[in-house]
Design goal:
Elements (H helix, E strand, L loop, with lengths): L1 H38 L15 H5 L40 H120 L2 H17 L10 E9 L5 E9 L3 H13 L15 E8 L5
Antiparallel strand pairs: 1-2, 1-3
Amino acid sequence: MTELEHRSDRWVSATMSVLLHAALIGALVYGWWSFRHASSKPEPTLAIDATIVSSKALNGGGAAKHTPPPARVAATQPPPPPPVEDDQTTPEPPPAAPPKATETAAEEQARAAAAQALEADQRKARENVERDKQAAAEREQAQERQAKAQAERKAQAAAEAKERAAQAERDRLAEAKRKADEARKAEEARRAAEAQELAANQADIQQSVADEERSLAATSGPAMASWKQLIEARIHQAWIQPPTVRSGLDCTLTVTQVPGGQIVNVKLGSCNGDSAVQQSIEDAAYRASPLPPPPDPALFVRELTIHFTHSDNSP
């Protein structure tokens, strides 16, 4: 749209220039024609006021005679121009008529100037057309270069986007593989830990079974029975019998000891004595601390169940 407006403006300018020069040439031709028309009219004569004097009067001879007044000779004058109305502009008088040779040269100069102006206008119009064509070609080339550059940028952007997508896919696959490897290693580690824990549990179970077997064998053996008899005797020695005690007393004690035989807790189980008797037996157990050590250190246990009895025949 802008290109068409510029081209229209140039054609309007060229047309106005041609019309202006044509008007100038027409004004020159009209002035020359008016000048020739005015020069063909009769030239006006001048009015001369003269007095006729005789030769005698000039010579001074003879008597002076009365002579009539000189007759005035009136020159023929052209009639006055017609009056001009108020609403019309008075035309300027035409210039003095130049010689014929000068008129021919002016006419030739005017025609030459008009021809030169017309040729200059035509040349300028052709230059404008050529300039418009060149500008249009340059704009078309610029548009082609811009379209080519834009296509190249789009192609490059598409290639970069494709490469980014491919790289993102490679990264995703690598991340998935890494996570899978980590999960596999974690599973292997978990299974190994479970196997190790199972083996340790089995070892602990086996050790516990062996310890239980040894403890059972020890507690059911003569050595354990002999050690419990020593502890019961120590408690009997520390026992202060209350007045309410009766023959046939039968109580069960559970004592908790630490290495070295120090008693830390006494719990009375079944007992057929009254509360005073039961309290006296607990007090006797604390007074019996520390307990005698076992004959075999392997027989040591923290909790021991002691069978405490009393009869009239008891010491």
